Automatic annotation (TrEMBL):
It comes from Candidatus Nomurabacteria bacterium RIFCSPHIGHO2_01_FULL_39_10. This is Plasmid stabilization protein. It comes from the Bacteria. InterPro entries: RelE/ParE_toxin (IPR007712), RelE/ParE_toxin_dom_sf (IPR035093), Toxin_YafQ-like (IPR004386). The keyword Transferase does not apply.
């Protein structure tokens, strides 16, 4: 199972989200820890500003950005809507 670490920025953004998004985030991170490439997550590598990081879907519009530290550990660095993160 994947170990997950959350940055201070992730925690700050997470706290600002509504209850539905926070609950969905817990569900998706739990799924990620069990199967990082589950089709529901749409786990994919990022480019540009986020080169070296990856993203998973929380909902249709919300994403969580993370980076692998090693094969067993990831650090989630931010969460937000597609426009909040990428535009």
């Amino acid at each position: 199972m994947i170990n997950v670490i959350y940055t201070k920025d992730f925690k700050k953004s997470f706290k600002k989200k509504d209850k539905f998004i926070r609950e969905k985030t817990f569900e998706r991170v739990r799924l990620f820890r069990e199967d990082p490439f589950n089709v529901l997550l749409d786990n994919h590598k990022l480019s540009g500003e986020y080169e070296g990081s990856s993203s998973i879907n929380i909902t249709g519009n919300f994403r969580a950005i993370f980076k692998y530290i090693n094969k067993d550990t990831v650090v989630f660095s931010d969460i937000g809507t597609h426009p909040e993160l990428y535009e």
